């Protein structure tokens, strides 16, 4: 069984979590840009990331449906 880490969502921790995600996104963006990647490369990267998340969500949904 796959375990996922889900932080506790209180109003304060939710906003801190959002800030952390924004900082992470900026860091990845800056790293890609400083490494010479172009905008189209960054779009390809984010597309791949979204595909990974989408595929995981689809697999989780299918597993839930099969368990019912």
- Percentage of β-strand residues: under 5%
Distance between the termini: 16 Å
Unreliable spans are none
Q: Please describe the biggest sheet, giving its number of strands, its sense, and whether it closes into a barrel.
A: none
Separate helix tally: 2
Q: How helix-rich are the residues, as a percent range?
A: over 70%
Mean pLDDT: 88
Number of strands: 0
The assigned structural class equals mainly alpha
The ordered H/E elements are: HH
Report on this model:
This protein is mainly α and 68 residues long. The chain has a domain of 33 residues. The chain is 78% helix and 0% strand. The chain has 2 helices and no strands. The longest helix is centred in the C-terminal third of the chain and has 29 residues. It starts with 10 loop residues before the first helix and ends with a helix. 0% of the residues are buried. The model has no long low-confidence stretch (mean pLDDT 88).
């Amino acid at each position: 069984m796959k375990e996922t880490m889900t932080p506790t969502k209180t109003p304060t921790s939710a906003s801190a979590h959002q800030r952390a995600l924004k900082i992470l996104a900026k860091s990845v963006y800056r790293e890609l840009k400083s490494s010479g990647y172009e905008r189209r490369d960054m779009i390809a990267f984010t597309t791949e990331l979204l595909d990974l998340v989408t595929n995981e969500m689809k697999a989780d949904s299918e597993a839930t449906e099969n368990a019912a």
